[in-house]
Write a structure and sequence with these properties.
Layout lengths: L1 H24 L3 E2 L13 E6 L7 E6 L2 E2 L6 E7 L2 H4 L2 H4 L5 E14 L2 E13 L17 E2 L9
Parallel strand pairs: 5-7
Antiparallel strand pairs: 1-8, 2-3, 2-6, 3-4, 3-5, 6-7
């Protein structure tokens, strides 16, 4: 009887460890190489997050044209917003660059200034994916895993 309980416990631990390995290492979405971006993907903007009073995003490039770092354009993303989908370890303390697919269709008044609004249909991350001060620094930088996504929104 005691031997049977021990065997069941060992199997349960092995299954739990295997599940954790899948969560840590199973690719869900792959990063895109910056050099592989082409103009045939439609309209897209290269954005990064910023910590300011105002919009949380800034455009640093689009369809092959780079914006000067000094003259960045603060922008609001509506639709598929990576900030609402991805876990904070990908966003906070992580200098990730995002490819946001969509178009600028309007402007919004935000804190007394006018900012463009990207209506997003999707996004990709540009390689390498940084995970900040997370304990998950050993996860490959070429893809997102299940733990990189918010499970409850």
């Amino acid at each position: 009887m005691q031997r049977k309980k021990r065997k069941v416990m060992i199997i349960a631990v092995v299954v739990l460890l295997a599940l954790l390995m899948v969560l840590f290492f199973m690719p869900v979405k792959f990063a895109v190489e910056f050099d592989d971006l082409t103009k045939d993907k439609g309209e897209y903007y290269i954005c990064e997050q910023q910590s300011v009073t105002g919009p949380n995003w800034r455009i640093i490039g689009n369809n092959g044209a780079s914006f000067d770092e000094i003259n960045y354009v603060s922008v609001i993303i509506e639709g598929v917003d990576p900030q609402k989908i991805l876990n904070e370890s990908i966003q906070i303390d992580s200098p990730n660059r995002y490819i946001v697919y969509g178009v600028i269709e309007s402007e919004v008044d935000f804190y007394g200034e006018r900012f463009p609004v990207i209506t997003s249909s999707g996004f990709d991350l540009i390689y390498p994916i940084e995970r900040g001060a997370s304990l998950r620094v050993f996860v490959p930088q070429s893809y997102l895993t299940l733990l990189d996504y918010k499970w409850i929104r």
